[in-house]
Amino acid sequence: MSTAERRRERRRTTPGEVVVMAVLSVLVLAVSFPVLYALLNSFRSYAEITKDPMGLPTGLSPDNYVRLFQTTDYGEALLNTLIITGGTLVLLLAVVPMAAWGIERLGGRSARWIYLLFIAGLMIPFQVRMIPLVSSMNQIGLYSTLTSVILVHLGGAASFGILLYCSFIKGVPREVEEAAEVDGAGRLRTFWSIVFPMLLPVTSAFVIIQALSLWNDFFIPLVFLDASSAGTINVALSRMVGLLTSQWELIYTGAILAIVPSVVLFAAFQRYFIKGMSIGAVKG
Amino acid sequence: MSTATAERPAALAGGRARPPRATRAARHRAVMLLFIAPALLVYVLMVIAPSIQSIQLSLTDWDGINPAYEYVGLANYQDILTSDRFWNATRNTLVLGLGSAVVINAIALGTALMLDKLHHAQGFFRTIVYLPALVSGFIAATIWKYMLNFNFGAVNTVLRDLGFEGAAMDWLGDNDIVVGVLLFIVCFTLGGNTTLIYLANLQSVPQDLVEAAEIDGASRGQVFRYVTWPMLAGAVTVNMTLMMIAGWTIFDQVMVLTAGGPGFVSETMAFFIYKVGFGEYRAGYGSAAAIVLFIVVMATTVLANRYMRSREVQA
């Protein structure tokens, strides 16, 4: 009997398991406390929060949620974050899988050097390239545009993408694409119609990991978007923390709204998520 | 070329009207290089070129705005290595980066061991354990900032309500505890991805080995020490390396919670570079600090990799 089969064998729930379940539940609740606290307080007013910080909301009034969009830049920031996340993902998929395929099918010493050049990026912290990038973006008039944030993200994510795709492509047989070429399909068409669909498992992992990290990123938009832009949700929130010192309820509301898309993404693609995270273990 | 002549019979044997193989190979190379070109171009422009430019800027007194600057040799590096503020930032980075790597790995391993013990509803518990990891460090830190407020924060309120008036502190404004508070917040997790990696590795530990040890009368502790733990060696190294590399660039929590304060007490290397480069208009100096950070990250990665390989040989 294999290990997996033995694992799946039906057994009665032991007292030990019940204890483990209880401990895990308590731990999850404890670690989630800040989020639950913010969620509860997103339904309370500033007066209520400061008068009784540990009080419960009296009702589910959407007041704060409405006011967040009416009185702050949050709506625009939300849109910016969507554009940056979506735009970066689309561009990454347009260039990275193709490049990884090129590296693997080029072979030889030059391919090895190109691969190593890409992988070296994993060791270059963003701080190392940030100061020259800001000045270059300024010179070409892109500073404080969403384009600059997308471009900077592209460079940063390329290394990880090449690593992920190359290791996957090594296991894809050459015959498929050679057969297609004999039929006379153009290389580019061969790639998009035959190769790219075969890369789906790694693409789903890559998209999920990147979507989450792009959505959650704070440092890059902080550096590349100044006050002329509404920023991303994280940047907008950090500005509110500085300006709206007496509107805690809006900060809590904004924090909760920032988490919602991640949770929705997780709920929708849970299976791919867990699998993707183990494929993406290289990044962590 | 000789290869071309040698290939020709093969091409003839193929019996189709195709260009000679050497030409086809050259065309194949050209097409593959075109496939690589767009990604390579963006990558070089956005990562490699600015990194090299950083080295150049680190040798200047550039303020980040004025187009004119002068070369000052290694003066910036000298300033950095003799600056108490930089060493303080380095120490904080070590405490937060290395400290959180150790603590989070311990938490994640503990959580994974518990999950591995479950034969029922393991999928459900794995899901809810992962949920907190969906909250970014930035958002968590923002909420904590308010929960730690001296007057109206949740933490001090609970402490006062329970009668521990003296335990209510200015958590983020006290020089002596602020770095500890930051470490606590960074470590307030169930491990997320780290836990998943450990769980995957635990599930690949052969049950036969565990059972054999149990039949030989090994206690639970002995099974873990002599069977499970050695099998996890690779996962531990991978997770520690990943967390340490991430730890070297801790920024979000510091920016949100303390902005490096009080004074410079809670600055990390990443925050120091940001502050000096953009806040204090010392782009040359900031670039030098960034290069120092790069050397540290590279050394960590290379050493960790070498260590990992030496372990693999043993196994």
TrEMBL record, chain A:
Tell where it localizes.
Cell membrane
Q: Which residues form the ABC transmembrane type-1 domain?
A: 78-269
Q: Which CDD domains match?
A: TM_PBP2
Sorted keywords for this record are: Cell membrane, Membrane, Transmembrane, Transmembrane helix, Transport
Known PROSITE patterns for this protein? ABC_TM1 (PS50928)
Q: What parts of the sequence cross the membrane?
A: 20-40, 77-101, 113-134, 140-169, 190-212, 250-269
Entry keyword annotation includes Cell membrane? yes
- Transmembrane helix among keywords: yes
Q: How does it sit in the membrane?
A: Multi-pass membrane protein
Query: In which broad location class does this protein mainly occur, judging by the first location in its UniProt entry?
Result: membrane
Pfam families membership: BPD_transp_1
Q: Which family does it belong to?
A: Belongs to the binding-protein-dependent transport system permease family.
UniProt protein name: Carbohydrate ABC transporter permease
TrEMBL record, chain B:
| Compositionally biased residues, Low complexity | 1-17
Q: Where are the transmembrane segments?
A: 30-52, 94-115, 127-147, 177-199, 229-251, 283-304
Q: How does it sit in the membrane?
A: Multi-pass membrane protein
Indicate whether Aminoacyl-tRNA synthetase appears among the record's keywords: no
Region annotation (Disordered) ranges: 1-21
- Protein keywords: Cell membrane, Membrane, Transmembrane, Transmembrane helix, Transport
Subcellular localization(s) per the UniProt record: Cell membrane
Official protein name in the record:
Sugar ABC transporter permease
